[in-house]
Amino acid sequence: MAEGWTFAGESARVDTGAVTLIEGSSFCLAEPGGDIAPGTSQGLFYRDTRILSAWRLRLDDEELDPLSTMVPEPYRAVFLGRARPRPGQTEATLLVERRRFVGAGMREDVVLRNLGNEAAACVLTLRAEADFADLFEVKEGRVRHRGRHGVEHGDGTLELSRQWRGQSRGVRIAAEGAAGAPGSLTFRVVVPPRGTWEKSVLVTPLVDGVETPTSFPLERPVEQAGPVKRNTAWLETGPRVSVGDEALGTTLRRSRRDLGALRIFDPEVPDTPVVAAGAPWFMALFGRDSILTALMALPTDPRLALGTARVLARYQGTRVDPMTEEEPGRIPHELRFGVDASLVLGGNVYYGTVDATPLFVVLLGELLRWGVDREAVRALLPHADRALEWIERYGDRDGDGFVEYRRATDRGLANQGWKDSWDGVNDADGRIAEPPIALAEVQGYVHAAYLARALLAEDAGDADGAARWRGKARELARRFDERFWLPEKGWYAMALDGAKRPVDSLASNMGHCLWSGIVAAERAPRVAEHLLSPELFSGWGVRTLATSMAAYNPMSYHNGSVWPHDSGIAAAGLMRYGFTEHARRVAEAVLDAAAAFGGRLPELLCGFDRAEYDQPVPYPASCSPQAWASATPLHLMRVLLGAEACLPHGRLRLAPALPEHFGPLRVVDLPLGDARVRVELRDGRLDVAGLPPGVELTDEPCPCTAFDG
């Protein structure tokens, strides 16, 4: 069955307080005390397979009393627990410290500290189980026993495995001095008075019998491990931002740190970073999510944006395959590694998205604007042209000039835009739209792709090509306004349905249309007014669907919730059309929500009004950290700075509109081409240094951003 792709329910809930550790495509969900509870969504996952479904530490067959949990790095945690008092004792004397490191498996250093004056004797047992369930099964709560499972044990080792469908998955658990038994490793320990005992346990994945090199080998100090060095380099090499507002500073630091944790590396090109969509369930490259994140964070790390473009280009479609929805030129939706994923639609790469392909071309244009490795961008031009061929041949299946989607089989995603839940596209009266569906924002993305391709052509000296692509953008904008504008309502339709009728709900999609520049100038004031209306603006951001619509539900996934990235894109669109105060209100609302969440924005939050509840209401199954939510605060700072680069035309635009209470702002080492720029804003005065030769500072947008520019 195709449950992995077509599942339309809610992801398995991660219990409040659960600890999430991530590094690359590995992640671990655990109890606050460090145990992985069987029968839950918790576990240690490697390449989309759960290699530990239970992990429990016991002292003399007793649970520990949890004391504290510390997560100093995204991949590292320290769990403190106390042994329970023995009969006749009034106070416990054994402190248990579990230092956990996640990355290509797991390392756990267990330290027993005896705080008493007598030697403490105990039996420490680690109990392990592995169901080797695919991530999709766990996420959707449908885990079932499959294949032939095996258990082997010896001195200091326990190995669990599963054979299924001709593939083998396993895990080796090893610790010197332990006695292995089916399902457990046991240590007989005597801890001296006021002394300590320490032992390291390695959990190593096995894929088809091949052991994966551990990220935290015992023979190397932890600070020299690959994840540590990569994380340190990420934090040290990017731009440094300081602001007067303490809460905002916390949010920006947390956002950058989370983005670093969400980086994954293509096994075939290990020095090429890309960004995963989010933890815990989406630690994989996603076309739409990864591109939008890369766009939002491009000034922070251009290498991440270029790596994302390169890897997606490598997986660009080359043939027609209804099972995976691959088509020539199409950019994939999702890349997975698990056994189950390969069975879902016939392969580990699924292409069922309508927007990743135009957004890919937009990303190439932005890389050129910011001066990121011009030759590398030029090398990707054939992929841009194949993407545009897909848009006009396969995306526009009926030749009406709009890109629409309809899944190729019953196995695919029913909705293939960013609101991809089964009920995410509906009329004002709540009727679910019938495919093929042409989404408003997708036409905007195509418009932006045409403009990006025009700039790429101009940079290559192809004036005729640049004029042709600008002409396509102009014509698309004209037809979009003609078919999508609803004069009796004063807003753009969310989509056109299969009968070419407007899907007339009032929704946040219009904000994306502003961002892409497809909105007619005379319509923009009405769009801006609606985005900040009480129906759409919650005080924490822009709702996905207005309160006046029949399908509105503030606790739904896409029909009234607030998605930070959605609001961030709307803020950028408002700023693009000159609605500075509107953009500032949206940006402040989202950043206030971030502060309320301790600096980490979740994937989405409930759409309740700020006047109703003075704290944002979390959405229970929200990913955290999640890539485009993590990138949103950095993106909003760019929006509030009015920062837009166009190096082909020798321009850097800065038109600051930061709220006064943010205080002074200083950005050091902002990458711009081969230069590193310093930007300071204090008491309304802007100071910029380090611009590349031939680049001028301006407060006006580059004319090439308009289709008739």
UniProtKB/TrEMBL annotation:
InterPro entries on file: 6-hairpin_glycosidase_sf, 6hp_glycosidase-like_sf, GDE_N_bis, MGH1-like_GH
GO term, biological process aspect, one: carbohydrate metabolic process
Domain Mannosylglycerate hydrolase MGH1-like glycoside hydrolase residues, every copy: 366-594
Residues annotated as domain Putative glycogen debranching enzyme N-terminal: 21-198
Protein name per the record: Amylo-alpha-1,6-glucosidase
Source organism (scientific name): Streptomyces taklimakanensis
Lineage, top ranks: Bacteria, Bacillati, Actinomycetota, Actinomycetes, Kitasatosporales
